[in-house]
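Sequence design from tokenized structure. All designs in this work follow the same two-part layout: the structure record, then the generated sequence. An example of the structure record is given first.
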């Protein structure tokens, strides 16, 4: 009987794992929750603890390998109101199941960069043709294997800031489209759903419009052109301080530029730090009625690193202190009407991507070549048959809801945040988990506690099955 019970428990647990956010897809210029049709606006934070140096595959660790660290940070971010993180570098041979599952349980999606700072693991902007080879693409495909199985994988960045000045816009654009094509073909053959693929652009205004036009257009007007971007991320730092406005920040120019975009556009990084602490007034503009053409954005960045953009400080003993920036961002998020924002869906219909042509490109230095490099030897085989022995990520059960390390608020008091496991397949929203704000410790346990007792239909079914079998 105990073996039988164990068996039933395993089944119940497996069913329980089905608790997951609903996958997001691209429709016209919006991200949309596929099964409900409601618009998905990114309320994001860039997540790179330890900075680029925090990527230590030689020691078996990257930003998503330590379940305790992820639990701590997912709890903190859930309280902040975040629904998306961007992760810059992962080693696809490592196991990310715990971390991805924890963020999933918190209602937080992951935007994943497929590259790394190591040689041979990204397109070299100074010599793109030499870096576009089968070894590089094998890494890229392994990242797909590692994250394709998680419902909260929102998309893959094929490249980040490969064009970072006018000069680098001459040769690189066709290679960005080539990597996008290869990724999309691999996903089409080896993933169970279409996972969006796009680009993250530096805010170099001389080439910004060209970059977006170049990457969204359809070669020969083919709307199914696989080399196109599915989305366009912009790393934007033009709104600085509490005196800035929609007009002085240049947000007005961005809205004009992207007004008829055929792919979702969002800030893949934002949050100028010239005025400190940051007050994040741009949040009201970004999610307000003037900017509905954009799909939100991700604040740079979660942890305090040398560049001084942190929302929190992570100490060497792994305790965390929230910074004033965290409180200010939380307060901005809490003023948003999420119902209103999410209902702004379906505003675009029958958008056609413009046909690629020289006319779309305005800067004389920018590439006008829509002749996309063909796949290096061996790549087509890999796309057909899959990479050998991939590490395929899959959801695991999440049960722990308490902070595994101490977290202190800006007032110095320990906070009492708990993970609220979202059982209704929803994304996290500001105010979803208000438990234990740093000014008001102590009420966080209530929600977390009742939540631990939740019964999803699947778990309930498993439990009934267990009882019936026990009686037999
Ligand atoms: C907009 O979202 C709602 C749910 O929030 C859905 O019922 C409706 O069908 C969606 N509209 C479109 C055009 O997708
Ligand atoms: C938020 O927007 C919805 C939909 O427009 C509206 O019904 C609701 O009253 C708004 N809530 C607040 C607090 O303004
Ligand atoms: C919209 O896109 C078309 C090309 O598809 C372009 O000619 C037009 O100028 C764009 N409008 C704006 C306001 O950018």
């Amino acid at each position: 009987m105990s073996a039988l019970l164990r068996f039933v428990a395993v089944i119940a647990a497996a069913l329980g794992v089905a608790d997951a956010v609903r996958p997001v897809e691209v429709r016209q210029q919006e991200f949309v929750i596929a099964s409900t049709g409601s618009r998905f606006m990114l309320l994001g934070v860039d997540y790179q603890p330890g900075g680029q140096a925090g990527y230590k595959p030689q020691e078996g660790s990257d930003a998503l390998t330590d379940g305790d660290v992820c639990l701590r940070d997912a709890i903190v971010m859930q309280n902040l109101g975040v629904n998306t993180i961007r992760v810059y570098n992962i080693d696809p041979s490592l196991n990310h199941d715990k971390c991805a599952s924890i963020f999933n349980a918190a209602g937080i999606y992951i935007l994943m960069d497929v590259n790394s700072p190591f040689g041979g693991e990204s397109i070299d902007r100074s010599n793109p043709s030499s870096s576009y080879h089968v070894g590089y693409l094998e890494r890229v495909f392994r990242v797909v294997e590692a994250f394709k199985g998680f419902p909260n994988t929102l998309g893959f960045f094929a490249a980040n800031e490969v064009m970072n000045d006018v000069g680098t816009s001459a040769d690189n654009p066709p290679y960005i489209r080539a990597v996008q094509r290869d990724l999309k073909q691999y996903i089409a053959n080896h993933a169970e759903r279409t996972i969006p693929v796009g680009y993250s652009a530096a805010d170099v205004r001389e080439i910004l419009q060209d970059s977006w036009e170049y990457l969204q257009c359809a070669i020969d007007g083919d709307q199914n052109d696989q080399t196109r971007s599915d989305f366009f991320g912009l790393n934007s730092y033009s709104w600085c301080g509490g005196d800035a406005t929609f007009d002085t920040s240049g947000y007005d120019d961005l809205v004009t530029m992207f007004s008829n975009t055929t792919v979702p556009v969002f800030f893949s990084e934002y949050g100028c730090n010239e005025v400190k602490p940051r007050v994040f007034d741009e949040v009201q503009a970004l999610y307000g009625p003037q900017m509905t053409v954009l799909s939100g954005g991700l604040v740079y960045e979660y942890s305090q690193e040398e560049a001084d953009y942190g929302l929190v400080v992570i100490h060497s003993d792994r305790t965390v202190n929230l910074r004033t920036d965290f409180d200010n961002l939380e307060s901005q998020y809490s003023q948003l009407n999420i119902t209103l924002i999410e209902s702004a869906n379906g505003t675009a219909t029958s958008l056609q991507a413009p046909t690629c042509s020289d006319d779309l490109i305005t800067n004389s230095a920018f590439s006008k070549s829509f002749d996309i490099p063909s796949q290096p030897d061996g790549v087509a085989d890999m796309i057909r048959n899959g990479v050998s022995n991939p590490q395929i990520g899959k959801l695991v059960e999440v049960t722990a809801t308490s902070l595994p390390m101490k977290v202190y608020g800006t007032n110095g008091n320990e906070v009492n945040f708990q993970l609220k496991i979202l059982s209704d397949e929803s994304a996290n929203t500001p105010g979803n988990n208000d438990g234990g704000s740093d000014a008001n410790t102590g009420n966080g346990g209530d929600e977390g506690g009742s939540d631990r007792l939740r019964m999803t239909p699947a778990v309930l079914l498993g439990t009934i099955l267990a009882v019936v079998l026990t009686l037999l």
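Residues 36-38, 343, 345-346 surround 2-acetamido-2-deoxy-beta-D-glucopyranose (ligand 1) (CB under 6 Å). We note this feature because it recurs in several other targets discussed in the main text.
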